[in-house]
Structures are given as C-alpha cells and as structure tokens.
Amino acid sequence: MSRFDDAAPNTLFKSLEKAEVGEALPATATLLDAAAFNEAGLIPAIAQQHDSGEVLMMAWMNREALEETLRTGQVCYYSRSRQKLWRKGETSGQQQRLKSAALDCDGDTVLIKVDQTGPACHTGRRSCFYIQLDAEQAAVTSEPMIDPKALYGA
Predict the structure, then answer these.
(1) Is 108 known as a binding-site position?
(2) Does domain 35-152 have CATH number 3.40.1050.10?
(3) Phi and psi at residue 66, in whole multiples of 5°?
(4) 106 is in an annotated binding site
C-alpha cells in the first residue's frame, strides 16, 4: 500500500513527482492503468543498450506487449504493420533481453534497457539511428553488421 494508491489515474503521474527515492509506489498494474497509451492503445518504447547507453531503436508497445516483456524478460513490441505482437528476434534471432523498464514522468513513453544480441535494426545495423542530420545535409554513420538477407532470408 502506498500513499499514491488513491490518486485518480489522470493525476497519478503528477502526484509521483513528489515521491521520495525508495518510497512505495502503486502496483505496476495501477501505473499501467494510468499510463498514456494513445488512441490505438500504443505507447512509444525506446530500447537502449543497458551497459553502453547506446540508443538502439524505437518501437511501439501495447499493454499486452509491455506486460509480457516485464513477465518474461524477453522484449516484445506491437507491430503496427502486422497488427500483432512482435517478439524481438523471433525471425532474425537478434533478441533483446530486458534489463530494466521505466515509464517517463508523464507516463507516455517507456524506456527499455536491454541486452541486445547482434544488430537491433532490420537493416542489419547495430542501431536504427544511423542517419545523422545537420542543418545542410545527412550522412550514414554505420555499416550493417549483418546482411539483412542473412537475417530474414529475403
């Protein structure tokens, strides 16, 4: 039981701004009830390599994907194009093992710290963020680690 359990879902994250480090918080299910999933029932999830801090990718999770990730330790997303759960690495073998998960201060984004096996990007690159921008031009900053045809057999 925490002092935040009686907070209305629409004010829960605001009330957590005053929480002390180590203070008891509401159950995960209560926090997910208050999380800001969009009109499609999705929340953005940023995957970051747990030991290096490298940002690997951004994908979407629905509540089921997030709960499965927390329960199993194997990262699961929601594929908008396929309209179904997508267990990272199920076709490529390039899995993400969960190290930690955190909601941001507004409850509208999830940060997933992972241990990534091989490339995270469908292009075969370690990170999906390989197109660097400046005010004038863009540049590709990394080579594929693995040919995508070898990952997906296409």
Answers:
(1) yes
(2) no
(3) -65, -45
(4) yes
